[in-house]
Fold tRNA modification GTPase MnmE.
Amino acid sequence: MANYDTIVALATATGSGAIAVIRLSGPEAIPLVNRVFKGKNLAEQASHTVHFGTLRDGAEVLDEVLVSLFIAPHSYTKENVVEISTHNSRYIIERIIQLLIRQGARAARPGEFTLRAFLNGQMDLSQAEAVADLIASTSAASHQVAMQQMRGGFSNVLKQLREQLIQFASLIELELDFSEEDVEFANRAQLKALILEINNVIQKLIASFEQGNVLKNGVPVVIAGRPNVGKSTLLNTLLNEERAIVSDIAGTTRDTIEDEVNIQGVTFRFIDTAGIRDTLDVIEAKGVERTREKMKKARLIVYLADPQHDDLEEIKNQLAEVEQLDVPYVTVVNKVDLLTQEHVDTLYTIDPLFISAKNNVGVEELKAELLHKVNLHDLGTDDVLVTNIRHVEALRKTEDALQRVLYGIDGAVTSDFLAMDIRQALHHLGEITGSVSTDDLLDNIFSKFCIGK
Ligand code: GDP
Ligand code: ZN
């Protein structure tokens, strides 16, 4: 373990909760708190114990606190960690942190606790990143994916791949020492089989990103259709149901907004748009172009039609345009409350879902259809999903390097070329878990954390 100084930060959010936790980590954490704590002698207490007492700045009592001790290496950072639970007053917290800094602690930088956990081997880089995801998770699905990654599911898969490759790399590098003699320690057929197998795993991981990303960031859904078909009304109906749980602010109808709705644990990000066909003047045309861009990027389109205004031919024309975007879509006829039997009979040819956005009719069926269309596989607890673009990029580079190894084997290239590409592949795999890392990379990852994490 490297020798670090002792850092301190507020670990809980500032706000109106009753209790705040101030965390210290480092070799001096316990003696440093002990000097200002009146209660038991903390230096003599066991790990994972909690102690009541007061914190004092000279003779002045700052607060009654609970002090939790975690003695190295049995802590989050693998260093000595002290957590002080105080009353959640900004004044008290500020005073205590200042006091601890005067005793020799240093204010922690963003993510520094987790950075130490990584540097001290408590977790690998992808697990550290999962901690940030876990804290940010807002749905059951994103929580499950982050949890899986944090507990090392992804890391274990990568570790196995690396170990297998390292074995071959060392055999091939052995051949380099005997280059005059044309020996082959590494069986080429076996190497090829191994790489095909590894690439297969890597491709599955890369493919899982689509689902992983959707679970982490939400499914982008565009609600499209002509003005007045009821797009905003639908979005409000979807949102109100959701929001009724947390607040009863009346939904207001706005245009081009984006909002999240949680459907059975999956976050959908709904994007309400201006109509897709009102291209009459230039300004509107721009809006339409934007809409089209959004639609192309969406994972799903809900196309809304209002047969009061558009006949079947017109609706079919619009659907043809949607179809060209090559994005899965759901055809929905709104204002079912106003439809005649004749409408319904003709519309059956396009097989729509009939809803009334205003009266909340058919909206549950629409939700079920949306879930069905995104086609998320049920996550088993052991499923590993890649949710991080940095990881996907590293996996793609690994795959490229391994592909070169395969070409090399087929082309009977010399061992040194094979060794070079295998090393490349190992390098990129290592970037994910952090067995290969640079200060810039670490900086980039941990600076996005909050202070105290
Ligand atoms: P947008 O332009 O597509 O966003 O359409 P709006 O959501 O603003 O709705 C246009 C009009 O249609 C409003 O007056 C809504 O109240 C009305 N509307 C929306 N859904 C329904 C519905 O299911 N039935 C009826 N009768 N009217 C609806
Ligand atoms: Zn609208």
About this structure: The first helix runs from residue 29 to 34. The chain has 15 helices and 13 strands. Residues 231-232, 255, 272 surround zinc ion (ligand 2) (CB under 6 Å).
